[in-house]
Amino acid sequence: MAEAEEASLNIRSADLLFTPIPERIARLRDLAYNLWWTWHPEAQDLYRHIDADLWEEDYHNPVDFLRDVRQRKLEEAAANPEYLAEYDRVMAAFDRYMAAEDTWYRRTFGNANDVTIAYFSAEFGLHESLPIYSGGLGVLAGDHVKEASDLGLPFVAVGFIYPQGYFRQRLDQSGWQEAIYSKLNFADIAATQALTADGREVVVEVDLPGRTIYAKVYRIQVGRVSLFLMDTDIHPNSPQDRELSARLYGGDQEMRIAQEIVLGIGGVRALRQLGIHPTVWHMNEGHSAFLVLELVREKVAQGMPFDEAWREVRAQSVFTTHTPVPAGNDAFPLHLMEKYFNHFWPHLGLTREQFFDLALQQQSWGATFAMTVLALKGSHAHNGVSKLHGHVARGMWHWLYPNVPQDEVPITSVTNGIHSSTWLAPAMRRLYDEALGPDWEEDLDNVALWARVRDIPDERLWEVRQALKGELVAIARERVRQRHLRLGSPPQVWPVLEPEIFTIGFARRFATYKRATLLFREPERLKALLNRSDRPVQIIFAGKAHPADDPGKLFIQQVYQMSQQPGFLGRILFLEEYDMALARALVQGVDVWLNTPRRPYEASGTSGQKAALNGVVNVSVLDGWWPEAYNGANGWAIGEAREYSSQDEQDWNDAQHLYRILEQEVIPTYYDRGSDGIPHRWLAISKESIATIAPVFSTRRMVKEYVTRLYLPVAEMQA
Questions:
Q1: Distance from chain centroid for Cα 594
Q2: Is-contact 396 389, C-beta < 8 A?
Q3: Could you give the CA distance from residue 383 to residue 376 in angstroms, rounded to a whole number?
Q4: Rg, the chain, Cα only
Q5: In the prediction, which pLDDT does 326 show?
Q6: 8 A C-beta contact, residue 40 and residue 31
Q7: CATH number of the domain at 104-416+703-716, out of 3.40.50.300, 3.30.420.40, 3.40.50.2000, 3.30.2130.10?
Q8: In angstroms, what CA-CA distances link 691 with 454, 687, 695?
Q9: Distance separating alpha carbons of residues 272 and 266, to the nearest angstrom
Q10: Which residues of the chain form CATH 3.40.50.2000?
């Protein structure tokens, strides 16, 4: 059965759950089950224009929307000539996209038709209506999948569906983060059962200590790419095992190792049942590295000696490491590995010691089986996610290559980018249509094309930027209103935020190394900066801390409590529940994107790239992607590109420099207005930021690099 027919069968089986849709607009169902709509605002408008209030209430989820919408609303849309004309345009664009033969991949590598790339990740950030992501890693994975679709790659992706997703964030009266979990109803999302060629459901089996665990596989269609997600909340699993895939990054080490066994080993078995036989296996971070062991086991079972099987599997595999923070690299104690794999290593033809040697790493607490080590040893191509991170990773893992100079450690870098269509504000897209031509998105990694941005009239860019800030202010006010209603307390300051004031955005995961509280190092100096009558400033904070990260949660509480103090009240705001919807509003609506990680712990970061695409100016530490982008004219750099003798010295120096450039450069430039009331110098920086960052720090460039530098060289090794 063809993939399109399978998806159609699954969708039709759910038809009775939907409000009856007039035949003239019946394909709204098909569109809802392909996440192509997530990066095409005109497709989302087909639902919004039927019932805007319900679209917001259902949190921009078309599957849920089609279940809840009143039939009268659908009939009105089907009788509206303007709506039908737009419906026909969108569906024609969708059909052209899905049927396109002239993709970048086919034009460039027409003879590489026997290649299939399998991309494994523990999380995928595709849209706020599918909360199976926690932050940057997942959003990067989601953007990677979307770009693979746009470029026409032969590509599938594998992960978990997480019925309870990642947690929803609520702050109590004191500002302490509370984690709220709710069950994800599969009938409400764009997931269908994955089926084999003969129409049978795909359920994989994986052995854990004393029992077999079962995982059912679902399919989510992302443009031309199929994403397969596993779920263990099925019969006949025990209650404990049903919880195994319930939450992203939940539970203790036993749950973590069991999750990663199902992801890596179960993920390979899922693809086998589906009749998919990848030539390239891409591990996005070490969570899925057990797939290497399963691939070797398959070959050994066919009679191949272990060493030869290991070499063949290694030659098929690509590994991307995403973190220079040691705690971000999973490593399991040997006693736990023995418990979970004592039945497995005999199938590899290995002894216990030989098996442990595959990924042995000495930690301060003892010997461990390290997933990053397994992934590095078990893959041919390895990369960090920025040039600086590649350098740091070569230092971190130099011990694995003792006879190689550190600079020659075989870990390259492919700097992260963003899926431009997902993160670009519709108003900015219309502006780029005017400046770059209607087909600019087909050539969006063309640096020369983006030079035309510098010719955009200042008044046009300023008009759009101010409108986007107004939209952000409206969203922020509504979120604050909802929080106070929940807590039963009136807002202390209203209205929240003012659209005319210079606005700084700081939003990311609240890990301590990201230094969210750096701005508060000198509170009185910050108060003076925020409250100047001639050039006031407001700052919006947002972000989640991992549920087990109490220091990160303490940072959130500190920011919140400072925001309630005189001098900060009304000038600093913390918005709870940072997700992709709020992220879009922030990167599109603030004036400056602030990034203050402790160098060199930020592997890449991409939120500043999203901001730059929308004309927001970056003020950032020279860490992650920013050293590659900063040219002295497209934003500001905080501190110096050097190492410090102590973290306190580093924090003090960076804070002093941040205060100075805000006081003397950033804020005065914003408020330096011409006779027309427009900040021309500021807009010159904004345009330079767009022109230099948008074409380079995109997934268009990034995925092309993966194809040409990693995927195809690995595929050619097997030719």
A1: 19
A2: no
A3: 10
A4: 25
A5: 78
A6: no
A7: 3.40.50.2000
A8: 7, 6, 7
A9: 10
A10: 104-416+703-716, 424-697
Is residue 235 within 8 A of residue 294, CB to CB? The reply is: no
Architecture of domain 424-697: 3-Layer(aba) Sandwich (3.40)
Find the Cα–Cα–Cα–Cα dihedral 315, 317, 322, 324, rounded to 10°: -40
Could you tell me how many helices (H) and strands (E) the chain has, helices first?
Answer: 33, 21
Secondary structure (H, E, C), 177-194: EEEECCCCCHHHCCCEEC
Query: Does residue 244 carry a pLDDT above 90?
Result: no
Instruction: Calculate ∠ Cα 585-590-595, nearest 5°.
Output: 100
User: pLDDT of 616-650, one tens digit each?
Assistant: 999 999 999 999 999 999 999 999 888 888 999 99
Percent of the chain with pLDDT over 90: 85
Residue 1: predicted pLDDT: 39
pLDDT digits (tens, 9 = 90+) for 287-316: 999 999 999 999 999 999 999 999 999 999
Q: Which one, of 542, 558, 563, 559, lies nearest residue 492 by Cα?
A: 563
In whole angstroms, give the CA distance from residue 258 to residue 185.
24
Which candidate, 202, 338, 330, places its Cα nearest to that of 274? 202
Rounded distance between C-alpha atoms, residue 344 and residue 208, angstroms: 10
Binned at pLDDT 50, 70 and 90, residue 250 comes out as low
What mean pLDDT do residues 327-345 have?
Answer: 93
Alpha carbon distance 289, 369 (integer Å): 11
Q: Is the peptide bond before 131 cis (omega within 30 degrees of 0)?
A: no
Alpha-carbon torsion angle 564, 565, 566, 571, nearest 10: -50
Instruction: Indicate whether this model's pTM tops 0.90.
Output: yes
pLDDT of residue 363: 84
159 to 114, 164, 259, 267: CA distances (angstroms): 23, 15, 10, 7
- Concatenating the DSSP letter of every residue in 20-41 gives P--GGGTTHHHHHTBGGGGG-H
To the nearest whole percent, how much of the chain has pLDDT over 70?
Answer: 96
Residues in CB range of 716: below 8 A, 6 or more apart: none
Cβ atoms of 162 and 247 within 8 Å: the answer is yes
Among 636, 543, 532, smallest CA distance to 583 is for 543
Question: Is the preceding peptide bond at 490 cis, omega within 30 degrees of 0?
Answer: no
Contact 616, 583 (CB under 8 A): no
DSSP 141-187: HHHHHHHHHHHT--EEEEEE--TT-SPEEEE-TT--EEEE-----GG
Cα–Cα dist 623/637, whole Å = 10
Query: What is the C-alpha separation between 328 and 269, in angstroms, rounded?
Result: 27
Of 173-182, 216-225, 304-313, give the lowest mean pLDDT range: 173-182
Instruction: Judge whether residue 506 has pLDDT over 90.
Output: yes
Cα dist from 126 to 188, 247, 263, 363, whole Å: 15, 17, 19, 35
Q: What is the pLDDT of residue 10?
A: 53
Cα dihedral 492, 497, 498, 501 sign: positive
- Min mean pLDDT across 28-42, 108-122, 529-543 is at 108-122
The residues near 226 (Cβ < 8 Å, ≥ 6 apart) are 3, 156, 157, 219, 220
**What CA–CA distance (Å, rounded) separates 288 from 124?**
13
Element (H or E) spanning 661, and its range? helix 647-661
Q: Say whether pLDDT at 12 is over 50.
A: no
3-state SS assignment for residue 100 = coil
State the pLDDT at residue 492: 66
The number of C-alpha atoms within 13 Å of 645 and in the hemisphere containing its C-beta is 0
Euclidean distance between CA atoms 483 and 260, whole angstroms: 36
